[in-house]
Amino acid sequence: GQIGQSVFRSLILSAAKSPRIQAMAGRHGLKAGADRFVAGESLNDALNVLDRLHGEGMRTYVIALGEAVHTREGADAAARIYERLIPDVARNGQGTTFSIKLTHLGIEADRDLALRHARRIVSLAAEHSAFVRLDMEHSAVVDETLAIYRALRGDGLDNTGVVLQAYLHRSMDDLIGLLPLEPNIRVVKGAYLEPPGVALQRKTHVDVAYRQLVRTALTYAKFTAVATHDASAIRAAMADARKNDSDFEFQMLYGVGHALARQIVAHGHAVRICVPFGQDWFVYFTRRLAERPSNVLFVVRNLGRR
Ligand code: FDA
Q1: How many CB atoms lie within 10 A of CB 66?
Q2: How many angstroms separate the CA atoms of 234 and 206, rounded?
Q3: What residues contact 88, with CB distance under 8 A and at least 6 apart?
Q4: Which residues does the annotation say bind FAD (predicted)?
Q5: Checking DSSP bridges between strand 271-277 and strand 132-134, what pairing results, if any?
Q6: Which residue in 139, 52, 119, 64 sits closest to 92, CA to CA?
Q7: Residue ranges per domain, the chain?
């Protein structure tokens, strides 16, 4: 039940920090099951997946995997990936958008460096008429992520958006604070391990908070990305959006909820799929495992087969 599920999440998310487990994953590579959630290690892998999804009537966004970068060289390398990625992907003419993680751009080491990189990436995307969203990460970087979003918008860069996590106690206040900017907001439940002082702990409570945050965004934000695989939250959002004549889309992760995504597209609604690629897939992969206990059995079975 509820308690089992949250114990499971903290076990997986803590185990993922172990160097031994990371080394084991490295040996087995994407074949241990990560290829269900990650397009591949190269940009070409990502481009192939994008083509396939567009062929099914889906919208897409790309993220270059990587986070928790604490050196200037690491942050510069991440920025260079995006500088190559954006023109290469924009060429497909399919309206693919992008996401960046500010810890990938070194925000925990040097806030100004991350801001400079983000500004350059979002400006480059603007030249290609592309949109870049700042993903939201663990609670220690929420203030600075929102500050960088505001700084970019203050520079006149309107091709950017942010993410709010329903599990954080603060998120409704953050949403209300952002409304004067006419923001483009992705609403998610939240994927990190957070203490009770900061975040709701019970799944049923997060589900309720998610619906409230989505409804408020659909009513007042300029654009809302309803990012979830939760069918009942999706139905509720469709009803709210109809009532408010909202500008919105659904978003899902590559490898999760594909049948549901196809149904939504068949109903005439837009679904944008997150396509992650790159060599630093391990931490992303463990967050996907922590979201559903049966995913871990699936990986253990794959390891056993090799
Ligand atoms: P919930 O956990 O209730 O799942 C609903 C159903 O979906 C489950 O019953 C199951 O069937 C299926 N499902 C969900 N996850 C699965 C998985 N990993 N494997 C198999 N089935 C699964 N978080 C964050 O903190 N910052 C961010 O920037 C983002 N960005 C983001 C973008 C997009 C497009 C999505 C869809 C999600 C995120 N997230 C995120 C992750 C989000 O916070 C959350 O952890 C996951 O979306 C899982 O929660 P659901 O909303 O799907 O609901």
Answers
A1: 23
A2: 15
A3: 43, 47
A4: 136, 165, 189-191, 203, 228-229
A5: unpaired
A6: 52
A7: 38-280
Helix axes 293-305 and 2-15, enclosed angle (nearest 10): 50
What secondary structure does DSSP assign to 211-243, as a single string?
A: HHHHHHHHHHSSEEEEE---HHHHHHHHHHHHH
Helices 43-55/72-90 angle, 10° precision: 40
Question: 287 among the known binding-site residues?
Answer: yes
pLDDT in tens, 95-150: 999 999 999 999 999 999 999 999 999 999 999 999 999 999 999 999 999 999 99
Give the residues across from 248 on adjacent strands. Answer: 224
In this structure, of 199-208, 221-230, 259-268, 295-304, the range with the lowest mean pLDDT score is: 295-304
168 lines ligand 1 (CB under 6 A): no
Q: Which of 5, 186, 284, 291 to mutate to test the pocket of ligand 1 (most atoms within 8 A of CB)?
A: 291
Q: What is the CA radius of gyration of the chain?
A: 18
CB-based burial, 110-141: b 16+ in 10 Å, e otherwise: beebbbebbbebbebbbeeebbbbbbbbbbeb
With tokens 């594909």, the residue in question is 258
The catalytic residues are 135, 186
The number of residues making up the chain comes to 306
Best CATH choice for the domain 38-280 from the list 3.40.50.620, 3.10.100.10, 3.20.20.220, 2.40.50.90: 3.20.20.220
> Which residue's CA is the nearest one to ligand 1's atom 36?
252
